[in-house]
Structure prediction request, 541 residues.
Amino acid sequence: MSLWRLEWLRLLRTRRWIALLGVYVFFGLLGPLSARYLGEIVERFGGGVQVTFPPPVPADGMIQYVSNVSQVGLLVAVVVAAGSLTFDAKPEMGVFLRTRVRRIWDILFPRLAVSFIAIGAAFVLGSLAAWYETVVLIGTLPAGATLTGIAFGLLYLALVVAIVAAAGSRAKSVLGAVLVTIVVLLAMPIIGIVESVGRWLPSHLVGALADLPGGAAVDDFLPAAAVTVLMIGLAVWLAVRWAERREL
Amino acid sequence: MIISTHHLRKEYGSTVALDDVELRVPIGSVYGLVGPNGAGKTTLLGILAGLRQPTNGTIDIEAPWSKVAVLPDTPQFDPWLTGREVVDLARALVDPSVPIQRVDAVVEQAGLADAAHRTVGDYSRGMLQRLGVAATVVGNPTLLMLDEPSSALDPAGRREVLDLVARLRGEATVIFSSHILSDVQEVCDTVGILRNGELLFQGPISDLLVGSAVPDFLLRVRPPVDDAFASLRNAPWVRSVARVGQDALRISVRSAEDAERHLAETLAGSGARIVSFTPEAATLEQVFLELMS
Prediction:
């Protein structure tokens, strides 16, 4: 039994992998479907109101997917990551681990890595499902732009996991870590309302998978990607530093 | 000494949790750390375990980190792991070279062989405590820090933990924090008494009991006890006499030798009919309460 296997078992035995995969793949299948049949859905449930939509384009499938997973999917991802990364939430469990490793990094790294891999895998599978269904229902998507959008989405999720780690190193409970992370994540798009600042913020990457297949330029996302990489480093550094200084 | 602290001090805001503690733990000893609630026992163990930082002072521990094991008072583990997996995780983290068979051996010693493959979430509190002990000893530590290891256990579980600590004597140094003084007196050879963050006494438990305790004797006679009481009260070698019920006297003397030499003669002179005469050994609890007062 190693700390890596411990995290793997945490995903399997607590069924967290089902929550992650279920949410991302569900929205991956639902997004293009709702984009394709939006007119019919509104007509059926709109009480006789006639609404005319323009014919869907392939990018609409990814737009629907991204808008769903950037809320519900992200919340599930934060909760799953916090459950793993807030390892001092029960001090006795923290004592068990802390008194048996040389460095706090030995505890933190497997949790960071496995959380990111699980969340990232769910996001990729959901994206592939959305891509496939978009092709089937609406039309083809440019492969290069879609893959680049997925890569930017993964980068953003890596930042989310790193922020959870930093919050978990200070918070006294899993719920506390979740709330702090959500506040930080919500603050970014609010600050991003200022257009000159917005394209530098990591939250700008959330829309990459929706915008790039629709024709947006990759260059438009590079400043945010660079800032995200720096922020990942900062958040991980803070997570280690705060965890080292924490007293149980 | 396997542990020495020098001018150890810990403050939580304006509260002083430990004040100038000079702990000395001899190699191979079973060291009992006692004190009332809030005395600083858990803080001291936390600092020794590296879980808390001292405000001032230094600590010398003459043992490699992988051979130091810590057991908190209420051990908890991920509830979806089996008991065996918990112990195996402890083994792998502390010393992966320890053979896997050692896991099964300590699980069995802890009385958990039948529950080894059940998830920890189904364990009782006593089972969790015993699992904690198993996870603590699996790496063959040379220094164990046990924080109130028997406080949550039923009498049978408590007996098992005490026996385990007793078995470790000679194989490892044990620091054993407890407020159950009879447990400390039973298994420890050295004791440190903390009060309000200060170490009031530290040394062999025998020194504490002999050095602090006044020899007492319990005398039972056929009632009435008045004549015996009067004779003993006037005897120059008696420090005090107290009635215990209708037919007994507790006699404090200056020395055991005086009592052995003069007691029979004094009682014979008083005409008392003696039923029994028993020396009363001081207990750690008596000494502790004396120190606390």
